[in-house]
Amino acid sequence: MGIFSAKVYDWVMSGTEEACLADWRAEVLAGAQGKVLEIGAGTGANIPYYPEGVELHLFEPDEGMRAQMRVKFPEANALGGSGDHLPFEDATFDTVVSTLVLCSVPEQATSLREIRRVLRPGGALLFIEHVASEDPVRLKWQRRWDPLWCRAAGGCHTCRDTESAILEAGFRIEDITRQSMRKAVSIVRPTIRGIARRD
């Protein structure tokens, strides 16, 4: 995990959580319903924001993150494995949640195809992701720093065009908000959040 090792991840993110992420999580996750899969569940930051009554399934490839999640939420039971192949049958879930995950999966297109596969027709992908900046100057800096950041931050890429990747995977974006992630490092501040639908 690089500088975002499981033991310090929550501390590293605490300022950003307070500044904006906690509110964004509450806003986006209010749309979760039915049988829900969260991919890259990390240390469980989303868990307090899920509506009552959802059937929550957690997937986190990193054992260190899963261990930290169990410390914070002893009742949580997260599966491990690779995001390139989710260990679930086709059309299993009503909702899939991805928050600050699609920046770091090895093959974004493959992971999005897997997400679409396990969603039922009409199911929703709820997302919060940092992305490539629309500002050419910031984008230039993102590209310049990306190789170093990726090595230091456990495979996290600074400048992926995640909106386009979601569309290319066969989703319809139903709602999207672009906003700066306050208190974050400058090269990862541009974000998108919203709902994409499997038609």
Q: How do the strands line up in the largest sheet?
A: 3-2-1-4-5-7-6
Order of SSEs? HEEHEEHEHHEE
The number of E-state strands comes to 7
Which structural class best describes the helix and strand composition?
A: alpha/beta
- Please give the domain count: 1
Distance linking N and C termini: 35 Å
Query: What fraction of residues sit in β-strands?
Result: 25-35%
Please tally the helical runs, counting DSSP H or I stretches of 4 or more residues.
5
Helix content: 25-40%
CATH topology tier name: Rossmann fold
The stretches of 5 or more residues where confidence is low (pLDDT under 50) are: none
- Nearest-angstrom radius of gyration? 16 Å
Question: What is the level 1 CATH name?
Answer: Alpha Beta
Overview of this structure, please?
The protein has helices spanning 6-29, 63-72, 108-118, 136-152, 162-168; strands spanning 35-39, 55-59, 78-79, 93-99, 119-130, 171-180, 190-198. It has 199 residues and is α/β, with parallel strands linked by helices. It has one domain (2-198): Vaccinia Virus protein VP39 (Rossmann fold, 3-Layer(aba) Sandwich), CATH 3.40.50.150. Helix 2 (63-72) links the parallel strand 2 (55-59) and strand 3 (78-79).
